[in-house]
Backbone:
């Protein structure tokens, strides 16, 4: 399966909006509010909408406050919803659709919703999931690996260094002994003291920190390449590092190269949705309106696909 999201402009404009400094959702009177505004209030605690991020949008539309003011893709900003598709890559059939706020956390979160729903409804469980870098965070990769879904997804990796010194990739992970081995063969271990914060200890769930012995680094001929500005080298390991490493290993395989080509299929469905079906701007407002339009459009796309896979039977020729 493959997943992706595309921005669709909402039926809202900037003239009829309020900046984040002046927006106050608690001042809205639900009884007098139009349906789209009531839906906005109802979805404030949902992961796909209000609860997706604590960052306040720069502007909020009066007519469709759940739509997201977004300047993504480096173009001019506008109000939008994200259309999320989960497809099967054999036939490009859309397996599930979800409308979300147009921010990465909401789009990535919808993947979990769609995969769970497709499993519950159709008993479909993919061997692998193909997606772009936006989906390559540690928690997302960890979630997939826990469910035995191979992540064919580029890893979001901030461990790289741009000052020419060695990055974490130069250090070998020794899982059995819970340590890294540096290029000079020395061990980097976690701090050996008792932490009051359970998230920081060796069995904790947060970021674990490993460091080499100060004496080893001070006498090391490679110190200039490794840690020129510190007494000793430190390396952090995120909670989902095993899943991230699995994704990195998958990225070296031939199957991954095929997956990256298959990923274009979901992009092509969005291109078809906008160019052929003309869904560039929503006509309905609110999360339910967006969801209804996305669902209907995906249904139309699937029906076209079905007609191609199972063409109408030929009429018998007249004698
Ligand atoms: S500086 Fe320390 S961690 Fe880095 S290679 Fe030398 S001994 Fe290993």
Residues:
């Amino acid at each position: 399966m493959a997943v992706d999201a595309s921005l669709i402009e909402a039926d809202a404009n900037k003239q009829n909006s309020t900046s984040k400094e002046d927006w106050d959702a608690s001042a809205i009177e639900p009884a007098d509010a139009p349906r789209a505004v009531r839906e906005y209030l109802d979805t404030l605690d949902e992961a796909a909408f209000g609860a997706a991020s604590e960052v306040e949008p720069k502007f909020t539309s009066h007519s469709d406050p759940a739509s997201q003011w977004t300047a993504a893709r480096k173009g001019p900003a506008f109000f939008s919803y994200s259309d999320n598709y989960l497809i099967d890559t054999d036939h490009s059939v859309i397996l599930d659709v979800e409308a979300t706020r147009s921010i990465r956390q909401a789009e990535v979160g919808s993947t979990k919703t769609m995969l769970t729903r497709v499993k519950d409804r159709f008993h479909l469980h993919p061997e692998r999931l193909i997606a772009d870098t936006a989906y390559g965070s540690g928690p997302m990769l960890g979630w997939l690996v826990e469910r035995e879904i191979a992540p064919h997804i580029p890893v979001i990796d901030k461990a790289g260094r741009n000052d020419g010194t060695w990055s974490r990739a130069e250090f070998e992970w020794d899982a059995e002994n819970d340590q890294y081995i540096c290029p000079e063969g020395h061990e980097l271990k976690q701090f050996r003291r008792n932490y009051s914060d359970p998230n920081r200890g060796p069995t904790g769930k947060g970021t674990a920190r490993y460091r080499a012995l100060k004496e080893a680094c001070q006498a090391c001929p490679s110190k200039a390449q490794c840690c020129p500005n510190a007494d000793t080298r430190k390396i952090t390991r995120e909670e989902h590092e095993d899943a991230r490493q699995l994704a990195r290993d998958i990225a070296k395989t031939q199957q991954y190269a095929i997956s990256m080509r298959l990923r274009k299929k979901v992009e092509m469905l969005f291109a078809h949705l906008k160019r052929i079906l003309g869904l560039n701007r929503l006509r309905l407002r609110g999360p339910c309106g967006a969801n209804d339009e996305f669902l209907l459009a995906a249904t139309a796309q699937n029906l076209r696909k079905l007609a191609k896979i199972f063409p109408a039977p030929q009429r018998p020729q007249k004698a």
User: Anything to note?
Assistant: The chain has two domains: 2-131+263-309, 168-240. The chain has a mean pLDDT of 88.
